[in-house]
Specification:
Elements: H1 18-52, H2 56-84, H3 86-106, H4 110-138, H5 144-172, H6 177-180, H7 182-196, H8 210-228, H9 235-255, H10 269-298, H11 304-310, H12 312-332, H13 335-353, H14 361-388, H15 396-421, H16 430-459
């Protein structure tokens, strides 16, 4: 490519240039580390439980400490990049994530691990929105879609490899390596960003909604504590504190003209319906996978590597079929795939409910994994596009961020509440807890997906304008 085509007159980057490749590499590597972390931690939970003699409640917090901070601060992280520089905030997020990963890998007990996971969530809330906003701000509009596609593909590879790589590291050495491996990878991403990624800021900066961020963080943490410790000391008080903080958050958002979550968006029936589908389906997905991986290792006696490899077909189906699903939805509309897809996921969860000691992989596990992958591949791209289909262009970034945050909140809610709803005692041993309520938990998740399908059928009307995956 000639030097004239390397950048536009405004300094925006053209796809295919060396600078473009460095930007995509730096942002995909950084966000890929966060996505990788999200897929491998579940595989490590039995090993963490064995080393620290941790209860199921401690394992729930190992997952949710990260999700609380990520869910609560995701929208604020995007605004910070607009204000103070997208590259700067992205690098700060990477540095925080790297330091927290090191602390996770060196944690001497579950309390230290949970605290470090919370710091990881803060770092992820800065780097995840920053990676995509850097690409959107750096590339010429003619090449932006191609650049985002390349970024998505590279990030998808890390998601696909995560369970397999994590299982291999745990089996070959220790669960600690799934965190320590982040250090050199994130360090490389920081070096690339500082050297090759241009700085950018928003021209029209929205004031930061710090009060809203503070109250929603308190609300999510307290409600998570209440769900996990519902039968223990402080459960009721935490629930009251969480509900109160959430009500205050809603009041703040309703009065703030620059709210990080503009409530006016929810007056749009399709936007609200799409986010309810996101909430129900992603809650079912996150809650079921949290328990399925434990079931594979503790009841079926899979090694970490085998448990990681068992779920790879799910990710491969997502990566290969989601683009096709998006193209189909652009022709026939999002309503049908968003109704059918969750029903496939519900069927997969019914199949997972009969996975028990002695079940074969080919006969029981693989059909459930495949059905789940097919259902999510049908659902995700139309869902993301439908959420944005009836939103004004000036609010698409915020609307996309809200949908992303809802999917994270769904995972947080499910991991915290599902064991209690299924009758699993989180304070007893991991094996005893799973025996008590695993099948019930899968059926609850199947019901949630069926509800999601009904919501989609009743609320989705407009044809999706674009396709994309919710991360």
């Amino acid at each position: 490519m000639s030097a004239e085509r390397a950048t536009t007159a405004t300094g925006l980057v053209r796809f295919g240039t060396p600078t473009a490749r460095w930007i995509i590499a730096g942002t995909a590597l950084g966000s890929g580390v966060a996505f990788l972390d999200g897929t491998v931690v579940n595989i490590a939970l039995p090993a963490i439980s064995a080393e620290f003699h941790a209860s199921l409640a401690a394992l729930q917090w190992t997952v949710n400490a990260y999700l609380v901070m990520l869910s609560a601060l995701l929208l604020l992280g995007g605004s910070l990049g607009d204000h103070y520089g997208r590259r700067r905030v992205y690098v700060i997020g990477l540095a925080g994530f790297t330091g927290a990963s090191l602390l996770c890998g060196l944690a001497p007990n579950t309390a230290s691990l949970i605290a470090a996971r919370a710091v990881q969530g803060v770092g992820a809330a800065l780097l995840v929105p920053g990676s995509l906003s850097i690409i959107a701000a750096s590339f010429d509009h003619r090449d932006r879609g191609q650049a985002i596609g390349a970024w998505s593909g590279l990030a998808g590879v890390s998601t696909a490899l995560g369970p397999f790589l994590g299982g291999w590291l745990i089996e070959a050495a220790s669960w600690r390596l799934i965190f320590l491996i982040n250090v050199p990878l994130a360090g490389a991403a920081i070096a690339i960003a500082l050297r090759h990624v241009p700085e950018s800021r928003a021209h029209d900066k929205r004031p930061l909604d710090l009060k809203g961020a503070a109250f929603v963080t308190v609300a999510l943490a307290a409600l998570s504590f209440a769900a996990i410790n519902h039968a223990g000391r402080g459960g009721v008080a935490a629930a009251v504190a969480g509900v109160t903080a959430f009500v205050v958050f809603i009041v703040i958002e309703s009065r703030n003209p620059h709210a990080m979550m503009p409530l006016a968006l929810f007056k749009n029936a399709q936007f609200s319906g799409g986010n309810l589908v996101t909430l129900t389906v992603y809650a079912a997905l996150s809650g079921s996978l949290f328990l399925v991986v434990l079931q594979l290792q503790r009841t079926l006696h899979y090694s970490p590597l085998e448990a990681g490899a068992a779920t790879v077909p799910f990710t491969l189906l997502m990566l290969t079929l989601s683009p096709l699903s998006g193209r189909v939805a652009s022709r026939i509309g999002a309503r049908l795939p968003m109704t059918v897809g969750p029903l496939f996921v519900a069927a997969s969860l019914v199949l997972f409910s009969v996975v028990r000691a002695g079940s074969s992989y080919v006969g029981r596990v693989l059909p459930a994994v495949g059905c789940m992958g097919l259902g999510m591949a049908i659902t995700v791209a139309p869902l993301t596009a439908a959420v944005l289909a009836d939103i004004d262009d000036e609010f698409t970034g915020i609307a996309s961020g809200i949908n992303n945050a809802v999917s994270r909140f769904a995972g947080l809610l499910a991991v915290a509440a599902l064991p209690a709803l299924a009758g699993i005692n989180a304070r007893v041993s991991l094996d005893q807890g799973l025996h008590e309520g695993y099948a019930t938990a899968m059926r609850i998740c199947a019901g949630a997906c069926a509800v999601g399908a009904a919501i989609a059928f009743g609320t989705i009307r407009k044809t999706a304008r674009a396709t994309g995956a919710s991360s």
